[in-house]
Amino acid sequence: MSLALTRNELIRPLNLIDGTWTGAADGARFAVTNPATGETIAEVANSSAADARAATDAAARAFPAWRDKLPRERAEILRRWHALIVANTEDLAKLMSTEQGKPLAESRGEVAYGASYVAWFADEATRIYGDLIPQQQRGKRMSAVKEPVGVVAAITPWNFPLAMIARKIAPALAAGCTVIAKPAEDTPLTALALAALAQEAGLPNGVLNMLSASRENGIAAVADWLADARVRKITFTGSTPVGKHLARESAATLKKLSLELGGNAPFIVFDDADLDAAVTGLMAAKFRNGGQTCVCPNRVYVQAGVYARFADLLATRVAALKVAPATDPQAQIGPMINARAIDKIASHVEDAVKQGAKVLTGGKRLTELGPNYYAPTVLTDTRDGMLVCCEETFGPVAPLFRFDDEAEAIRLANDTPFGLAAYFYTQDVRRIHRVAGQLEAGVIGINEGAVSSEAAPFGGVKESGYGREGSKYGLDDYLSIKYLCQGGLD
Ligand code: SIN
């Protein structure tokens, strides 16, 4: 896919620091490649700790003036940013599909999804209320006000190059924080374009700083942020091991943390479910972004009475999915992000088959399309102990596990250190309440596979992390509460 945009200036291979687009201090660069072809799209700044420090300096300087703006003034800038994102949908979608591989229709959807967080938090900026505490003693007045935490470091993944960074930056800016951000090394171009649009919307210099870095350099850049006491909060979406590392390393300066980490979502189909609805829900949840989302069902538990029928219905739908480059208007599944991802998917399927699983459809690489394509796959006769059960596959593979009763389904679903999303299908209203109450996850889809929304609190429990993004709760992580006690009033 050649990268010619309507506005080619949205391709920014530089860092944004203090309102200036600049290369890495030592001039280093690295290549961003198209996962469909392996071709280089652009060479971007390969930032080091020195660049990370410059970004923190700028954000710390910009903080007091941004904090002191009226909430309405911050909201206006966010609204202009939202309008610019929407107006540049086609360019952003094209950029995203080129560096990440998702079909263009999905990229357009992601632009709208990411923009919705900006609009949402523009409104929320004007609703940051405190409390006047009912009087406890004569002559004393007590109140609680909310203040921005300060400089926020946002570290984001490659699977949603626009939405994940928008839903961190927007609430931070709405709250009055300034931001230093590092998008994933695979997909920095969409995020840098988003920063260019924020600048165009009138965001003052230093309020949003963004830098790109390779995996190795990114570790050093983030280490600088972790050690810097001026950085008061880290918000991260990515793997659980990295989340734990950030929690450990930020302990020295006790930063506030939001961690949206790995999932291993169960999807339970009870024998009283509407099977067609369950298949449709699973298709939406499992094959979004080629199975590369943290909320994708990883383990599909189907009750014995409907197992064979459900497997047939699902295999028919999955076999019909069109796998093609993002530019093909019919594409439903694009390439996976890189060679590591495709190797992991292949190794999970091989392991399952070696242990007795059957491939109903798929089960192979599609090398005729390019290096990173994998056929959408349905596996039956999968069981505990297989890699597809205990690790996040992060690809288009649906392994079907059989269960006999409700207690067993809940036990199996919860038998994981993770707890991001869980889904179940049943038409029994009493079961809905029982099961929803017992599933250990932060997000529950009940007869529904599409759960994400800017108006809903998104986040996990257990080793899937803490903090919530989106909704009225999404601002809390960027605010601290100050208690004011005024005496001498009698
Ligand atoms: C994720 O995969 O981390 C986010 C998915 C979403 O927002 O729906």
From TrEMBL:
**Start and end residues of each Aldehyde dehydrogenase domain:** 21-483
SUPFAM superfamilies noted in UniProt: ALDH-like
GO function terms (MF aspect) = glutarate-semialdehyde dehydrogenase (NADP+) activity; succinate-semialdehyde dehydrogenase (NADP+) activity
Entry's transmembrane regions: none
Q: What is its EC number?
A: 1.2.1.16, 1.2.1.20, 1.2.1.79
Give the matching PROSITE patterns.
Answer: ALDEHYDE_DEHYDR_CYS (PS00070), ALDEHYDE_DEHYDR_GLU (PS00687)
Quote the catalytic residue positions.
Answer: 260
Query: What InterPro entries would the database entry show?
Result: Ald_DH/histidinol_DH, Ald_DH_C, Ald_DH_CS_CYS, Ald_DH_CS_GLU, Ald_DH_N, Aldehyde_DH_dom, Aldehyde_DH_Superfamily, Succ_semiAld_DH
Query: Which keywords belong to this entry?
Result: Oxidoreductase
Q: Which PANTHER family match?
A: SUCCINATE-SEMIALDEHYDE DEHYDROGENASE, MITOCHONDRIAL
> What NCBIfam families does its record include?
SSADH
Q: Which family does the record assign?
A: Belongs to the aldehyde dehydrogenase family.
Q: What is this protein called?
A: Succinate-semialdehyde dehydrogenase/glutarate-semialdehyde dehydrogenase
